[in-house]
């Protein structure tokens, strides 16, 4: 269930009665089994694939951060790469913002969706969108400094500049800042306005971050509790939900 595949398929895979599994399937298994980086790489080798590269193309959340997600329980939390790819979410985060691990290509970057898809900003009140955009761009510039010469980072910046005049405007202002703690307002399609404190815990190598969302007031706390009671069954058709960092 956690890996998104049937019991029958897993049994056939274990018994070597299936075709070679894809890298996407192996990544899902590694997440579900909470494998360490070394165990994950071994799994890829056993299946005849090269392990995920370090440039973020097939990044998987660290095993320690995954365990922290489990421990947080009803507190919404997610794991991000330093370029803003959502690598893992706990159940509370899925209820709050929908599944953000499903995107591929440039759309897997939260910032790319923000600047190229107007609907991606709907989670944020209009009066806060400029501030949110500035924070994302300033954080990306800090990543560029840490990963100087990395073609993955440079390529993302080039594609953003080509795709968005708004991004070009903010990028030209040369602001730089690492995101650590923040208060933001999220607009959830089922329970409405939520004021959340967002704490960012950064891994030692700064390659991944754990974002933890806690309610900033009593009303938000009550609405989060309602969201937990509603569960997944009552998501309106077509609603995916989004969160932007």
Automatic annotation (TrEMBL):
Matching InterPro entries: Cro/C1-type_HTH, Lambda_DNA-bd_dom_sf, MLTR_LBD
Positions in coiled-coil regions: none
Domain of life of the organism encoding this protein: Bacteria
Pfam families listed in its UniProt record: HTH_31 (PF13560), MLTR_LBD (PF17765)
Domain annotation HTH cro/C1-type: ranges: 2-40
Protein name: Helix-turn-helix transcriptional regulator
Organism: Nonomuraea marmarensis
Lineage of the organism: Bacteria, Bacillati, Actinomycetota, Actinomycetes, Streptosporangiales
């Amino acid at each position: 269930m956690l890996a998104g595949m049937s019991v029958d398929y897993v049994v056939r895979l274990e018994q070597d009665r299936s075709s070679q599994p894809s890298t996407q399937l192996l990544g899902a298994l590694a997440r579900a089994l909470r494998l360490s980086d070394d165990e994950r790489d071994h799994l890829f080798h056993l299946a005849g694939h090269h392990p995920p590269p370090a440039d973020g193309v097939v990044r998987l959340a660290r095993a320690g951060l995954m365990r922290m997600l489990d421990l947080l329980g009803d507190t919404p939390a997610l794991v991000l790469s330093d370029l803003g790819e959502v690598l893992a979410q706990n159940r509370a985060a899925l209820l709050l913002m929908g599944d953000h691990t499903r995107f591929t290509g440039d759309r897997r970057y939260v910032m790319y969706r923000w600047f190229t898809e107007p609907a991606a900003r709907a989670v944020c009140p209009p009066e806060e969108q400029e501030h949110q955009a500035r924070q994302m761009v300033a954080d990306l510039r800090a990543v560029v400094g840490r990963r100087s010469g990395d073609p993955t980072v440079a390529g993302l910046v080039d594609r953003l500049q080509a795709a968005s005049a708004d991004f070009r405007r903010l990028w030209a202002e040369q602001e730089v800042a690492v995101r650590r703690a923040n208060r933001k307002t999220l607009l959830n399609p089922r329970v409405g306005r939520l004021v959340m404190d967002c704490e960012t815990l950064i891994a030692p190598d700064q390659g991944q971050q754990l974002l933890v969302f806690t309610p900033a007031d009593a009303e938000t706390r009550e609405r989060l509790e309602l969201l937990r009671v509603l569960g997944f069954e009552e998501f309106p058709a077509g609603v995916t939900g989004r969160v932007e960092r």
